[in-house]
Amino acid sequence: MKRSIRIASVALAAGLVLSACASDEEATDAADPAAPEETVTVDPAQTEGGLLAAVQERGTLICGVSQGLPGFSIQGDDGTYTGFDVDYCRAVAAAVLGDADAVDFVELSASARFTALQAGEIDVLIRNTTWTATRDRNEGGSFAATTFYDGQGMMVDTDSGFDTIDDMANTTICVQAGTTTQLNLESQFAARGLPYTALTFEGNDQLQAAYFEGRCDGWTSDLSQLAAFRGTWPDEQGGAESVKILPDVISKEPLGPLTSDGDSEWFDVVQWVVFATFQAEEFGISSANVDSIVASTNPDEEPAIGRFLGLVDGFDPGLGLSPDWAVNVISQVGNYEEIFLRNVGPDTPLGLSRGVNSLWTDGGLLYAPPFR
Amino acid sequence: MSAPVTTGTGADTARPPQRRVDPARWVRDNLFPTPFNSVLTLVFAPLVVWATWRFARFLVVSARWEIVETNLTLYVVGGFPREQLWRLWLALTILAAVFGLLGGVVGVTAREAAVAAGRTTATTRWDRLARLGPPALLLLVLLGFSRTFTPLLLTGAVVAIGLSLSLVARRIPAALRRAVPLITVAGVVVSLYSISSFGGVPRDEWGGLLITMYYTIGALVVSYPVGILFALGRRSSLPMVRWVCGAYVEFFRGSPLITLLFTGWLVLPFFLPADFPTPTLVTRALIIFILFTSAYVAEIVRGGLQAVGRGQWEAAQALGLSPWKQTRLIVLPQALRAVIPGLVGQAISLFKDTTLVLIIGQQDLLAIAQNVTKQDEFLGQGYIIESLVFVGIVYWVASYWLSKESQRLEVRLGVGQR
Q1: Is B207 left (phi over 0), alpha (psi -120 to 50) or beta?
Q2: Interface pTM (ipTM) of the complex?
Q3: Are B68 and A73 in contact (CB under 8 A)?
């Protein structure tokens, strides 16, 4: 019997190895016929716009998102993702594949995100990444557009007596480690000549716990995140009224999607998907009315809307997408207003108003080039 | 950890008379033997009681377990499509059946061997029941948070199938027992296929406890035999084999696991030829865990090999055994027996190291524990404590189970006694 146990354990090991390899390949083949193309993306020069074709052949979009960021990327209890960044992943999938659910989400840490994009592990990085000159040039990716204009702010106790950042000399400021937030804090306080102590934390959960313990005089982060935590401030800690966000905005944080350098076709696709969400709002087309607008639009009378919705024969911007790609984006995900309100708007924990994230026609910064 | 003291295994040695324990005397002897120890007791006893009380109070009274109840499925399987969950239950049923069968056959064979050798079987009914304690506790921790009865009923059915097959296995004629190990292997393969193939869920979509277990078990099963080979190779008389094995062990033991994972994730694809299919991320991570763990196992086993006296080799040679048989029959069994604590320690360490896949974008149990606090209804309420405590308990119970099983194995093999 000992012998048969030994044979069994060896055979079990061998079986597991074999099945691990074999079924893995099979699973890959079944779900992912273009698996070899994944490596092709490593060298974009070789592929000449291969990513669009690779994604279409694969049938799913691999989208890099953040590791749980309120309002931007959250995994629900049923395993599905929601959020502002997530919706833009879905919008790209809807445009490219016609199916907003054909997305594999990869949660990336701040330090791994650019390398993952360079290595071709993800097709597009939509991870509340701030557009800076250095990143655009040196990280191997290109920012396609700005989807959300954020800024860095400061949250303090309502009864702290601080009304602007200039009041905050000799204080302890809590900040998440390894982010541009920390660098902005340093340069702002140095520029204003305010001595301070920075207390850094790995994540917002730990930072908030320290804030509850009274270890922080101020909490600096992106305004959207401060709003999220203020909106859900626990009642036993005094509720949302016990903390306030100072009016100072100490940095510009334009957030947007990145694609890998050297694949301009794919870059254009992602960029125009973002523009389509702006343009849909400008035209007043939403997921609720897009079907009736498609049905009722006469391309000869409204050529701009007709071109946008792919109703004009012979008009093709050459993005390599089906003519009704914008219709898919709007009907399956929505226009910018819908995406904003659903994820970060007044009815969400973040409770943000549109502010500069309004259309240019409303005095905001969102502006789509013409679709023609 | 000391093995229980026994006076021998022969039938002629009588057990020592059971000493009656007088509670007052026990307290005096153990808690207040000297003034210094009395002070220590007075300082630490209240501390221990207070800490236990606070923790128990937290678990039972003040913890808000809604976050775990709401997200239980997420903790267990991550993003695994919910409409495909039946595949997991199917796989669990197959596994329970084949391992029930195997367990029953191994048990009955051991008992028959013991009877044939004139020994009484060492395990009592109580021993066997106690053995089920840790896994039952693990199931209790997981199922206790379920809001519906379905998982409880299904788990009950799976366990019942496993247990009844282990009873059936006792009646299998001896001639058919040889087939059982093969059936087990086939069952494991079929259950893995039934999850990921035939329209199933590729491993890249697994998450939570499921992916944690996949990495742990997959890496254990492969890396232990491989590690033993490397340990033998390092002691080989062929210089080339010795150097290669030595270089392998030193390289993987000298590199941080996190670096290796990053390499496997991001650097490896750059080196593979363009038309070479890149293995999926999960497979790459599994390979890294295997490479890393086998290096450690190799060193642990080498320690065991060195503990086997030269005389054992010489005695084996004197019996006329071939070098391979010397190793397999004489040296390796003694060497492995001596290093069980180290091997199990490495297994537990691997189990906890799998949390590092968090940094390569994988949703393992710990990653999910940190993510659920960002859901709208739990955001900013300090639920991270409940979430981490839950996951901590799951890790602890599973590690405790491994540790208990290894102690059982040590007792059975008589480690520390002979």
Answers
A1: beta
A2: 0.79
A3: no
Q: Give all domains of chain A, ordered by start, each with its CATH number.
A: 31-147+256-366 (3.40.190.10), 149-252 (3.40.190.10)
* Interface contact A251, partner B, CB < 8 A: no
Q: Which tens digits make up the pLDDT trace of B2-14? A: 445 544 455 555 6
Would you say the C-alpha torsion B3, B7, B9, B14 has a positive or negative sign? negative
Three-class secondary structure of residue A253 per DSSP: strand
The whole-angstrom separation of Cα B212 and Cα B193 is: 18
Query: What's the pTM?
Result: 0.83
Exposure on the CB side of residue B52, measured as CA atoms within 13 A: 6
Asked if B382 and A203 come within 8 Å (Cβ–Cβ), the reply is no
What tens digit of pLDDT does each residue of B382-398 get? 888 899 999 999 999 99
What residues of B are in contact with residue A115 (Cβ under 8 Å)? Answer: 266
Q: Residues A255-265, buried b or exposed e (16+ Cβ, 10 A)?
A: bbbbbbbbbeb
- Same domain, yes or no: B151 and B246: no
Longest dimension (CA), chain B: 77
- B102–chain A Cβ distance below 8 A for any pair: yes
- Is there a single domain that holds both residue B168 and residue B211? no
**Interchain proximity A21–B283, CB inside 8 Å:** yes
Cβ pair A77:B375 closer than 8 A: yes
Q: Dig out the tokens for A191 from the structure.
A: 């520029």
Please check whether residue A35 touches B, CB under 8 A.
yes
Q: Which residue has the tokens 């079929």?
A: B190
Query: Which residue in A91, A124, A23 sits closest to B193, CA to CA?
Result: A23
